[in-house]
Amino acid sequence: MTVGPAIDDLHFSQEPDVDEVPGPKSNELLERQRNVDSNAVAYPRRVPIALDEAKGATIRDADGNTFLDFFAGIGVLNVGHSNPYVLDAVKSQLDDVAHTIDFPTEARIDLIDKLREIAPGGLQGSSNVVFGGPSGSDAIEGSIKLAKHNTGRQGVLAFEGAYHGTTAGALSLTAGKKYKKGYSPLLADAVHVPYPDPEGTEDGISVERALDAVQRKFEDPYGGHESPAGIWAEPIQGEGGINVPPQGFLQGLRDIADDNDALLVIDEIQTGFGRTGEWFASDHYDVTPDAITMAKALGGSGLPIGGVLYHEKFDTWGPGGHVGTFRGNAPAMIGGIRAIDYIESHDLLSHATELGEYIRGRFAELAETTPEIADVRGKGLFVGVEFVDEDGAPADDLVEAIQTRCYENGVLVWSAGRHGNVLRLIPPLVLTEQQAEVGTNIICDAIDSSTN
């Protein structure tokens, strides 16, 4: 039985409708924000928009301009903004009880059951879930504690290009220097090794070279660090540039972790819940992690919730072994259940796969006549387009210009990559075929006008 409205009925419109941007009301709110909000605010500096309401894959600003959303709150709103099938249950839960710490509720137990059902590989039916704080960073912190507690070791291993969050432990795993500047020291014995270059890349860091670097950190007696408690990897690097590793990489990590009694933790915070055309991106590689970290789309409607799903054999904590005041956000939990139901009912995994192939195909076609496009990559509705200048150097200024032109013409996109030269597209999974075509046309026009 199909649940909720059809995806065509979720949106304000199938096309953007933009007049002057930013308009006067948006400018007023942007100015008020600059006067009182933190200097840490980042997104309005690149996309000067003040939000008023949103539905499906569309957003309206304070002046009534309607945009196609190819950003989805950094991959949070997989079933779209204000999906009524999700929100009806969330509102009902709010009327009953919202804050439950870790006392049992139907919402909590049902969500855990759903997660065990869709978990990757051997985690299906053999996993437990721990909720801690409300963010992806909190989920990473929980996974670090899980690995340390089960191995008795302190070291952690992640990858160059990685982003895992910005709390102290998560920031130790994050590779970006700009996020760490001024905050040292962080966790001791945190090491980063090369992530293989995206699949299809002929030169650069191969799977063999990347795995050799990991293995040496465990097994070389002069590797320079304690053998890590675990390996933390994104199955597709997001902030690092939508880097899709070649086949064999995740399996190689699985083998090294097994050989060295370490945990393999796969960060599915951005790639989970259908984003790549599978429930979890690790499903593309037929690899079962020991643990996966979850947040973003986990709450279904944008409500914050983070958690770690891990093999039950690692559930060695005693009471209070991992805690957090907001680990019982019942509205977010019921939102997560409803989002999973909606994705299943509307076959959004296949839909994401098909639309992603269409969008990447359009950019690949454009690349044939646009030398600035160095690569097009991704899986499902997780799309990256890498840009370089005439000398082959990263062209972050070009990506910023494309982003601005897209915004002016009604499509919201973002960037990624170590040098900011990758256009990142992560629209809601409920994006329609017409919206995909219209939005991609606008993005391609923005690329044309910015490169000619």
From TrEMBL:
Alphabetized UniProt keyword annotations: Aminotransferase, Plasmid, Pyridoxal phosphate, Transferase
Gene Ontology MF term list: identical protein binding; pyridoxal phosphate binding; transaminase activity
Gene3D superfamilies: Aspartate Aminotransferase, domain 1, Type I PLP-dependent aspartate aminotransferase-like (Major domain)
Keyword Nucleus: no
SUPFAM superfamilies for this protein: PLP-dependent transferases
UniProt-listed Enzyme Commission number(s): 2.6.1.-
Cofactor: pyridoxal 5'-phosphate
PANTHER family: ACETYLORNITHINE AMINOTRANSFERASE, MITOCHONDRIAL, AMINOTRANSFERASE CLASS III
Family note: Belongs to the class-III pyridoxal-phosphate-dependent aminotransferase family.
Protein name: Class III aminotransferase
Species annotation: Natrialba magadii (strain ATCC 43099 / DSM 3394 / CCM 3739 / CIP 104546 / IAM 13178 / JCM 8861 / NBRC 102185 / NCIMB 2190 / MS3) (Natronobacterium magadii)
